[in-house]
């Protein structure tokens, strides 16, 4: 009984503090990631429902209500008719945004570009999260 209570507390702390305890894919902000078809490296992969961790130096956990993450599918070869999908399930820390990839069928088997938009006292800012292949 005591171990069950400690396990429950430990899991709750993991979820609240930094969603990185889950199977989170970290995307480095500002680092360009070339797709395999361009002769570059490989894209990070994330499944719908999986968390992405986005490093964004100026994001403040106290301004979490002013943070939005948008995934824009690459519509070059096979248009979806979707300009972008707003990720609504997120957790903001100082310098880091954790967001769940929306369970949006039109994102399946697509490369999406990820951007973090946030507002603070000095205006509106954008962090470029690069690209991720969504399965």
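-> sequence recovered:
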């Amino acid at each position: 009984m005591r171990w069950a209570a400690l396990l429950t507390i430990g899991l709750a702390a993991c979820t609240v503090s930094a969603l990185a305890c889950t199977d989170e894919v970290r995307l480095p902000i500002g680092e360009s990631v070339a797709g395999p078809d361009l002769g570059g490296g490989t894209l990070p992969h994330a499944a719908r429902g999986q968390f992405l961790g986005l490093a964004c130096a100026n994001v403040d956990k106290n301004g979490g209500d002013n943070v939005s993450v948008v995934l824009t599918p690459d519509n070059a070869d096979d248009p979806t008719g979707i300009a972008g999908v707003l990720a609504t399930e997120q957790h903001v820390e100082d310098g880091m945004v954790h967001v769940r990839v929306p369970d949006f069928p039109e994102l399946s088997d697509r490369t999406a570009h990820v951007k973090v938009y946030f507002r603070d006292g000095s205006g509106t800012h954008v962090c470029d999260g690069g690209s991720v292949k969504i399965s």
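The CA atoms of residues 52 and 94 lie 16 Å apart.
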